User: Fold Radical SAM core domain-containing protein from Bradyrhizobium elkanii.
Amino acid sequence: MTAAVRLKPSAFNVKLRHEGRHLAFNSIIAYSLEMSEAQARVFNDALDEVAQSGSCKDEALLRCLYALGFVVPADHDELAVQRAVFQATKASTETLRFTIAPTMACNLHCSYCFQQDFAPCKTMRPDIERGIIEFARRKLEGCKTLVVQWFGGEPLLRYKRIVAMTEAFQRVCAERGVNYYAEILTNGVLLTPEIIANLPKLAVKAIQIPLDGDVDTYARRKGVSRERAQAYHDVLVDHMHALVDATGSVTIRINVDRENPAAGYDVVRMFKRKGCVDPRIDFRLGFLNNRDGIVDCIPHDCLSDVEFSDTEAEFRRFLVEQGYRVYGEPGPRKFPCSAPLRNNFTIDPTGRIGKCVPVIGTDESVFSCIYPDDIARTMRETSISNAPYSDFDPYGSVCRNCELLPVCLGSCPRSHAPEHSVICPLKQGLAKTLAFYRLHG
Ligand SMILES: C[S@@+](CC[C@H](N)C(=O)[O-])C[C@H]1O[C@@H](n2cnc3c(N)ncnc32)[C@H](O)[C@@H]1O
Ligand code: SF4
Ligand code: SF4
Assistant:
């Protein structure tokens, strides 16, 4: 930056108040400032001066504002640049992403599950499995990484098939000189010491397991006996160290509503009692939300956006007190979820190929299929330029004037459909969130 360069305030500056203090945040750099009344006056006056004159007499202050992203060159079209970065990310074929549901069947009956009414599907047929491997082999041309997310239903019901498919993916990746790793979302009930010990071989680098609170709460919400719930909790706590070591990242997702707002505390205390404190465990609350969600209604008294954000803020503070790392600091994102990415595909047990992970197993977002005897056709159909969500552009959406766009990217692309409405999970409680991560980030 030289004195001759005309400047302007960034379009992605956010100003907030929190407990009598002033906060300023820039969404591109993802940096926040906390200021007193007097400091905020200096900060705001400087930004006003820059807006009016393109510069600021206090050069040292101007340099700081520039370095922190609060001011940018006047001829810099931030929106266009961010938009171009997002379009390039969407079009990139560097990483091939598959979300595979080897079955839609499940061994639990969670009272809130959006997949409750799915007809349990048989195991994925061997020819569909072979078709997926061949699809991967052809799609991997020119790629650097294959990422598989195992999903369901309950994926561990088909553990042996996961092992067999992983071996096949790993062979194909070795042939092509491509990296391979996997993630899994599982209810965890079928985890055994043997399966945990095998996770490194399966290249599973992240696992997410939902827990809903103490043993009684879990039993009630998951539709199992108290004894079974107790046995499962015991196994999980006893094997958490091994699970963390095997994968490197364990997310414990605690789905909360008005019936179990304190569930997060019970779950964390349970692990703490056993001395299980590891920065690789990510305890996070899950928002059960029936408004514009995947299903019209779930039989739960859901929290409002504001209530959830307050509950989450309290929970974050508790995690710090208990010595756990708190994930989820707002930062620049490359994509809101994988749906708009060109090289991302969901595959259900019947071989239907779609884009949106939570609706896997339904017709929604399906645009092709694994044709075991005609993978060339699968390749043609999945190479079209107008796949579902391919035209998603948060910078041209209802969010286009939002200062938080680079860190939110419009939240859920599905919620931008005319029949839905966009929920702003990040906006709720943003001041509290930023103040928290200033201290604990
Ligand atoms: C559908 S499950 C499939 C994988 C596996 N059976 C499991 O429970 O993790 C994937 C995730 O969706 C979450 N989920 C299910 N129903 C939900 C709902 N109505 N709202 C929000 N999340 C939900 C579950 O908590 C779980 O973390
Ligand atoms: S374990 Fe997963 S798939 Fe099964 S009912 Fe619960 S949330 Fe749904
Ligand atoms: S969803 Fe809300 S917070 Fe996110 S970019 Fe859109 S308007 Fe902003």
About this structure: The first strand starts at residue 7 and ends at 9.
